[in-house]
Design a protein that fits this description.
- Helices cover 46% and strands 12% of the residues.
- It is an alpha/beta fold and 329 residues long.
- It has an eight-stranded parallel β-barrel with strand order 1-2-3-4-5-6-7-8, surrounded by six helices.
- Helix 10 packs antiparallel against helix 12.
- The chain is globular, with a radius of gyration of 19 Å.
Length: 329
């Protein structure tokens, strides 16, 4: 096992993420649940031309905990080859086929594979198996320490329990954020704005050197105003220019541009991230179809719900409307 990440590694990742958009990328599948080769290659080329700081693979948008080993390795390897100068962040957690008795060991193994495939940093899925555990707080900290020992910088992942994650107490957050390997924390609270505000305030007061990285697709503009300095979002898989420009406008203080783009981004989010929420991945793939990036037969999510045809058409209407009101997308 490698030693922990160096200060130089952590600082480099932090610098490259700050002010940028990290796209959590989906994987195009055919109707039989196999990687759609044409769609995959076309999407790689599309993203290579987008104004992103990097991509997150094996995240929820890319069904990272459900992919077969050979597909997972292929996906990360292809993104590394396609984006040699940009950040590749790999999500690591308990794989669908992992042995539950050893969840941290399974996460560490996934992290070690990420390191061998030249990922730059790790996005650590919340250890949901610790919900209700008598030693939850202690084991959350230990879990992150063991993953950090792989030798790559870490991005914490705060996914509130109502959104399918596990709540980190303020004391646990303080202890994990204090780890020198930690770049920052991705916040994905879904509909708990209060949680986002509380954690943001805690980081700004106690850990100003750590990045707040928003994962809040449904309130992206507001999350930037409340302390986020970068975004790692599924919505970043499409219309990257519009979202990257939103972040830039906020960073430089261009309020008029920020407000206009925030409204446009909200309109996109309110089309993609709706109930059933697990359908957002298929909706993203449908958007890529409408944008001419992948063929319709590549817009399949083997683990997501079936969606009615009118949602496919609604995605198209939203993209058309955005094209009329903004030069992006």
């Amino acid at each position: 096992m490698n030693s922990n990440a160096t200060v130089t590694q952590v600082d480099d990742v932090r610098t490259r993420i700050a002010g940028g958009l990290i796209a959590a990328t989906p994987v195009p599948f055919d109707r039989d649940g196999q990687l759609h080769e044409v769609g995959h290659e076309s999407y790689l080329k599309y993203m290579a031309a987008q104004p992103v700081a990097g991509v997150a693979v094996w995240a929820h948008t890319g069904r990272g905990l459900m992919l077969k080993d050979e597909i997972a390795s292929r996906v990360l390897r292809d993104w590394r080859e396609t984006l040699p100068q940009k950040l590749i962040i790999a999500g690591v957690g308990l794989r669908q086929d992992a042995i539950l008795e050893h969840p941290t060991a399974a996460t560490v193994e996934m992290a070690e594979i990420s390191a061998r495939l030249e990922a730059d940093a790790l996005l650590v899925y919340p250890p949901t198996w610790l919900r209700g555990h008598a030693r939850k707080d202690e084991l959350i900290v230990e879990h992150h320490k063991r993953v950090a020992a792989v030798g790559l910088p870490l991005i914490l992942f705060y996914l509130y329990e109502s959104a399918g994650g596990i709540a980190y107490s303020p004391a646990v957050l303080d202890e994990v954020l204090a780890l020198p390997d930690v770049v920052g924390i991705k916040m994905a609270t879904l509909d708990s704005v209060m949680t986002y505000q509380d954690v943001s305030r805690q980081l700004q007061a106690r850990h100003p050197d750590k990045l707040i990285i928003t994962g809040e697709d449904r309130f992206l503009g507001y999350s930037l105003r409340r302390g986020a300095r970068a975004a790692l979002i599924g919505m970043g898989a499409i219309c990257c220019d519009m979202q990257a420009e939103l972040i830039r406008a906020h960073t430089v203080g261009d309020s008029a541009r920020f407000l206009a783009l925030s409204d446009a981004v909200d309109r996109l989010a309110e089309t993609i991230f709706v109930r059933p929420m697990e359908g957002y991945i298929r909706r993203l793939l449908w958007a890529l179809v409408h944008l001419g990036v992948i063929p319709l037969e590549a817009a399949n999510d083997p683990w997501g719900p079936q969606l009615p045809r009118d949602e496919f058409e609604n995605v198209a209407r939203t993209l058309d409307a955005l094209a009329l009101v903004t030069q992006e997308c």
